C-alpha cells in the first residue's frame, strides 16, 4: 500500500510506482492550503489547480500490496488476453469489467471476495489510522473529516462494504458511532440538511460519501480539517468537486490536508496519471492556451488490453513511459504556446504594424496642418478676443459668443452633430455625448478634437482655446507612437525567425516514447463492448473509442 502525502520522500527499494508517485507530488501530493488563499473566492465550487503551501513534514511508511493482490492483478492480464483473443463473449467478460475489478482490487481485495483476509497494510487500514489520529488530535476543536469513495458504497445485501469496514474500525477504537455517518443515510432533503448541520457543528466528525452524493451542493466546510480520497474517480472534475468541499470560503481552519491513497502495483497510480492527462487537456481547452485539436474521450471508463497487461506484469518500461508522457506533454504545451505567440506575431507583422504605421503617418500629416492653422490664428496674449462665428452670426465679444454657444445647446433636439460655426481657423460642430452626458464642440481641421462644454459661458471659450493648443501635444504623441511602432515591427521581424529552443529535446523524447509504445504494445488500443453492474464509481460505457475535435 502506498499513502501519498505532501512529504514526497517515500523511498523504498525496487518500487517503480512509489518513485513515480513520490516524484509526481503535483499529481498525488497531499494539499495543504491556508484559508486566506481562497477567502477572496466566495462561492467557488471547483479548484482548478493543485497548490502546495506549508507542506507538513510527515514521513509516511509505505507497505507493499499483499501477495494475494499481486496474484489477482496477474489474473486480470489473463482475462484481458482472453477478451482480446475473442475467447470469451463480451456479455460474460470485457475490458470494462476487468478495469472495474482492477479498481476494486486496488481499493481492497475483499471487494472481489469478502472471505479474503483483511490485509493489515491495505490503504483502507492506513486511511482508518489517519482518520483516527486526526479525530483524536482535533478533539478540542471538534474538527470534521470527509472520506470520498465511489466504489463499495454501502448496501444492505450483506456484501462487503468499505464504508462499513471503516466505520466499524473507528468505532472499535473509541469513536462514537453517532460521529461517523454515511451521506447515503440522508435519503431526503430534510435528512441531508440535518446531517450537514450536524457536521458543521462538529456533532458528526467523519462523513463518508461518494462524489455523486457528496460533491456539488455539499456545504459542510465550517470545521473540515482533512479530506481522504480512498479511490480515484474517472473524471478530473470529480477530483475537483471533492477538493472543492474543503477548499472553500467559510472554513474556520487556517489550513487543511487532502490525502490520496494508492495501492502499490495495482491500477491506482496509472489511473491518477490518466486523470491528470485528461485534466491537462480540459484545462487547455478551457483556457485556450494552446491550439490542441483532439484528445481521447474524457469520460472513457475502460483500460485497453495493453494497459492492463503492462500494469499486471510490472514491465520496467512503465515508469519510463509515465515519466516521458508527462515530459512530452509539457514540451508540447510549451511548443504550442510558442507557436501561438509566433502566429500572433506574424499576423502583427503582416497586418497590424503596417496598418498602424500608415494610420499614424496620416494622422501626423493632418496634425501638422492643424498645428500650422493654430499658429496662423493665434490666441491674443492679452485678454482680447479674436471673435467667433456661431450659427451664422459673428461675435466680437467673448461673453456674447459664450452665451450663443449655450443657447445653441438648448436648441438641440438630437445628439447628432450639427454645424456650429468657426473659431480661429477651425470649423466647429455641436454634439451631445450620450455616454458622458454633456455637450461638446468638435474642432474640425485636417483632424478633429472634441472639447467638453460646461455651464460657464466664459469658461467654454477658454476650453476651446486649450483644445486648439493641444493639437501640438497630439502631434508629439503621434510622432513618438510612430517611432515605437516602427521599432516594434523591426523587433518582431527578428523574433519571428527564432526557433523553438526545445525542439530537439521534444523530437528525441517523442521518438523514445514511440519506441516505448511499441515495446509496451501501446500503439494498439482495443474497442471493446462493455457492460456489467456499475457501482457509483463505475460508469457504464457502450460507445466505441472516439476523439473530440475542435
Automatic annotation (TrEMBL):
InterPro entries: DNA_Protect_Modify (IPR052933), Helicase_C-like (IPR001650), P-loop_NTPase (IPR027417), SAM-dependent_MTases_sf (IPR029063). It holds the Pfam family Helicase_C. The keyword Coiled coil applies. The keyword Coiled coil applies. Residues 525-550 are annotated as: Disordered. Residues 541-550 have a biased composition (Basic and acidic residues). Keywords: Coiled coil. Residues 468-495 form a coiled coil. Residues 126-298 form the Helicase C-terminal domain. This is Helicase C-terminal domain-containing protein.
Amino acid at each position: 500500500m502506498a499513502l501519498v502525502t505532501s512529504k514526497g520522500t517515500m523511498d523504498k527499494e525496487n518500487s517503480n510506482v512509489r518513485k513515480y508517485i513520490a516524484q509526481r507530488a503535483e499529481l498525488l501530493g497531499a494539499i495543504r492550503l491556508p484559508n486566506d488563499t481562497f477567502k477572496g473566492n466566495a462561492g467557488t465550487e471547483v479548484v482548478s489547480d493543485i497548490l502546495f503551501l506549508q507542506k507538513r513534514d510527515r514521513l509516511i511508511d509505505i507497505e507493499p500490496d499483499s501477495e494475494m493482490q499481486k496474484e489477482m492483478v496477474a489474473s486480470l492480464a489473463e482475462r484481458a488476453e482472453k477478451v482480446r483473443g475473442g475467447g470469451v463473449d463480451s456479455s460474460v467478460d470485457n475490458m470494462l469489467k476487468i478495469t472495474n475489478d482492477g479498481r476494486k482490487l486496488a481499493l481492497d481485495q475483499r471487494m472481489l471476495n469478502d472471505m479474503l483476509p483483511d490485509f493489515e497494510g491495505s490503504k483502507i487500514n492506513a486511511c482508518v489510522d489517519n482518520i483516527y489520529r486526526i479525530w483524536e488530535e482535533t478533539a478540542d476543536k471538534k474538527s470534521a473529516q470527509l472520506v470520498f469513495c465511489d466504489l463499495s458504497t454501502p448496501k444492505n445485501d450483506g456484501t462487503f462494504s468499505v464504508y462499513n469496514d471503516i466505520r466499524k474500525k473507528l468505532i472499535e477504537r473509541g469513536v462514537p458511532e453517532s460521529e461517523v455517518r454515511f451521506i447515503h443515510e440522508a435519503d431526503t432533503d430534510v435528512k441531508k440538511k440535518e446531517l450537514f448541520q450536524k457536521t458543521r457543528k462538529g456533532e458528526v466528525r467523519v462523513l463518508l460519501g461518494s462524489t455523486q452524493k457528496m460533491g456539488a451542493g455539499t456545504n459542510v466546510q465550517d470545521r473540515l480539517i482533512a479530506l481522504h480520497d480512498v479511490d480515484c474517480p474517472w473524471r478530473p472534475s470529480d477530483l475537483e468537486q471533492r477538493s472543492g468541499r474543503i477548499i472553500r470560503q467559510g472554513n474556520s481552519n487556517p489550513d487543511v490536508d487532502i490525502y490520496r491513497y494508492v495501492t502499490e502495483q495495482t491500477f491506482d497510480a496509472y489511473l491518477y496519471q490518466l486523470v491528470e492527462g485528461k485534466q491537462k487537456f480540459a484545462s487547455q481547452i478551457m483556457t485556450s492556451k494552446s491550439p490542441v485539436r483532439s484528445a481521447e474521450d474524457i469520460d472513457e471508463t475502460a483500460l485497453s488490453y495493453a494497459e492492463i497487461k503492462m500494469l499486471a506484469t510490472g514491465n520496467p518500461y512503465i515508469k519510463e513511459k509515465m515519466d516521458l508522457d508527462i515530459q512530452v506533454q509539457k514540451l508540447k504545451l510549451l511548443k504550442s504556446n510558442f507557436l501561438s505567440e509566433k502566429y500572433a506575431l506574424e499576423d502583427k507583422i503582416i497586418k497590424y504594424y503596417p496598418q498602424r504605421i500608415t494610420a499614424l503617418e496620416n494622422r501626423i500629416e493632418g496634425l501638422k496642418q492643424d498645428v500650422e492653422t493654430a499658429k496662423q490664428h493665434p490666441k491674443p496674449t492679452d485678454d482680447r478676443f479674436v471673435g467667433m462665428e456661431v450659427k451664422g452670426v459673428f461675435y466680437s465679444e467673448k461673453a456674447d459668443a459664450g452665451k450663443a454657444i449655450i443657447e445653441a445647446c438648448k436648441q438641440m433636439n438630437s445628439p447628432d452633430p450639427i454645424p456650429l460655426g468657426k473659431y480661429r481657423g477651425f470649423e466647429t460642430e455641436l454634439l451631445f455625448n450620450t455616454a458622458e452626458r454633456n455637450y461638446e464642440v468638435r474642432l474640425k481641421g485636417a483632424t478633429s478634437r472634441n472639447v467638453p462644454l460646461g455651464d460657464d459661458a466664459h469658461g467654454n471659450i477658454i476650453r476651446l482655446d486649450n483644445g486648439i493648443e493641444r493639437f501640438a501635444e497630439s502631434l508629439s504623441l503621434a510622432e513618438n507612437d510612430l517611432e515605437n511602432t516602427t521599432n516594434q515591427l523591426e523587433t518582431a521581424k527578428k523574433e519571428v525567425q527564432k526557433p523553438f529552443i526545445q525542439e530537439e529535446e521534444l523530437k528525441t523524447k517523442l521518438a523514445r516514447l514511440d519506441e516505448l509504445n511499441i515495446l509496451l504494445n501501446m500503439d494498439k488500443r482495443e474497442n471493446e463492448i462493455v457492460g456489467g453492474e456499475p457501482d457509483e464509481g463505475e460508469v457504464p460505457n457502450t460507445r466505441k473509442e472516439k476523439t473530440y475535435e475542435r
